[in-house]
Amino acid sequence: MTPNIQKAFSPDLFRQQAHALVDQMADYLEQAQSGSLETVIPYKDPEESLAFWQEDYQQGQSDVAAFFNKTIQHSTHLHHPRYMGHQVTPPVPVAALAGLLSGMLNNGMAVYEMGLVSNPLERILSELLAKKIGFDNNASGLLTSGGTLANLTALLAARAAKTGVWEDGTSERLAVMVSEEAHYCIDRAARIMGMGDEGIIKVPTNERFQIRTDLLEQYYKEASEKGLRVIAIIGSACSTSTGSYDDLEAIAAFAQKHQLWFHADGAHGGAVVFSDKYRHLVKGLNKADSVVIDWHKMLMAPALTTALIFRRDDDAFKTFQQKAQYLWANQHSKDWFNSGKRTFECTKLMMSLKVYAILKAHGEQIFTDNVEYLYDLGQTFAKLVKARPNFELALEPESNIVCFRLKSNSADSPNNLNASIRKKLLEDGKFYIVQTTLADKLYLRVSLMNPLTTEVDLIALLDEIENIANQL
Ligand SMILES: *Cc1c(COP(=O)(O)O)cnc(C)c1O
Fold it and tell me: What global pTM score does this model have?
């Protein structure tokens, strides 16, 4: 063993580094919450940022605490109450500790022997979600690396259930139906599966950006006449841009009529299953064949931690039936404890630890509290926007995603005006919000992800937008 290696594995060195890091992280939380962190996003253009880190790298080996500190300073601060950007949660700190632990233990999970703890925990969490969704005891689920991969996995399961493509290949032209507001990863998944442009049937949405269920029959008929074989329909719960919930009951009835697989993409908004107040938004979810819910969006866990739940346990095992002699003896046995049989990943992060740690430390109620507080806050923000005559809402929000914009009272088009406002907000870094385009109109968009955000922050945001507009 070289002295270098000996030092790298020294328990004393680790103890010292870890204590220093945890202190730094606790200070960071304190600063984020007290408002003493100056910016939410210390934005630099990409070239400038690259140059900064290239110079850092040139300096060679140095104190790791300094590197951790720089990383904190130069990152986007999700724990800042004025973080309202993308749909990623500021993790509950205890879950970050579980991340540290799993980073050390590094049990790879694909086979039971490499996931003695994480495989059972994953099963317990899947059963918890299945119950919340309203599935019976036949349901089962798994965790995988993100909603994107989970949606692909669900569509692969749909294909396995409806066709023999996995074994025999096919010359059939398979297709899926989805709303034009669905997350782009559905489109990507269908393309990966060889469906091409025509195989992704995008159904238009109504004025609330929900799939037009009155058009499903027509689109299905047109697809069939073109020689396409529709195998699945996907409902968004909710959509990404506007946070709109599709009518899952209607989709379920349509799927049943035509023997289609019904997949519900609840990456963001499936979390309402934890809330009596908001569960009505996903009425019909229990009729889905598969459901995706991201723990790292509304459920407070670090990314990536995504649940894919199947109504019938059998379906989960059909997706990736393959021999792997060095991993498991029998490809056909349905061992829940060898999680690699059902996931795209072989070695996989011990994701379940992070969620389980939240449950142990804070109980299930924390998910209810988070979802209800943030969805309520979406309503509050909508009221504040409507109270100011110079602003307009794109639509009444159903969730914590709100799209709005400042009206233009000059020659400048509202699109240019709002794009300039968002650019200035980003450069100033005091708030982090994003933008989206709906029917050619550019809107400012907030996802209220931080349960420490209050009405005061929302009022300050609207004030700031007005100030910027006055200076432009
Ligand atoms: C965020 C999101 C996804 C993608 O999930 P990742 O975890 O970011 O890969 C898919 N669908 C919907 C509806 C989403 O909101």
Answer: 0.96
Q: Are 259 and 247 in contact (CB under 8 A)?
A: no
Centre of ligand 1 to C-alpha 388, Å, is: 32
Strands 173-179 and 200-203 turn out to be parallel
Cα angle 293, 294, 296 (rounded to 5 degrees) comes to 155
DSSP state of 246: P
Point out which residues pair with 263 in neighbouring strands. 234, 290
Spatial distance between the Cα atoms of 59 and 134, rounded to a whole number of angstroms: 56
**Cβ of 267 below 6 Å from ligand 1:** yes
CATH architecture of 102-362: 3-Layer(aba) Sandwich (3.40)
Torsion of CA 337, 343, 345, 351, to 10 degrees: -60
Q: State how beta strands 290-294 and 306-310 pair.
A: antiparallel
461: which 2 tokens?
A: 């945001």
CA 183 to ligand 1 center in whole angstroms: 7
User: Under the phi-then-psi rule, with left for phi > 0, alpha for psi from -120 to 50, and beta for the rest, what region is 63?
Assistant: beta
Q: How far is the CA of 412 from the centre of ligand 1 (A)?
A: 34
- What's the CA gap between 145 and 419, in Å, rounded? 33
Per-residue pLDDT tens digits for 181-213: 999 999 999 999 999 999 999 999 999 999 999
How far, CA to CA in Å, does 379 sit from each of 199, 368, 375, 439? 37, 17, 7, 23
AA identity, residue 153: T
Q: Is the CB of 118 under 6 A from ligand 1?
A: no
- State pLDDT tens for residues 215-246: 999 999 999 999 999 999 999 999 999 999 99
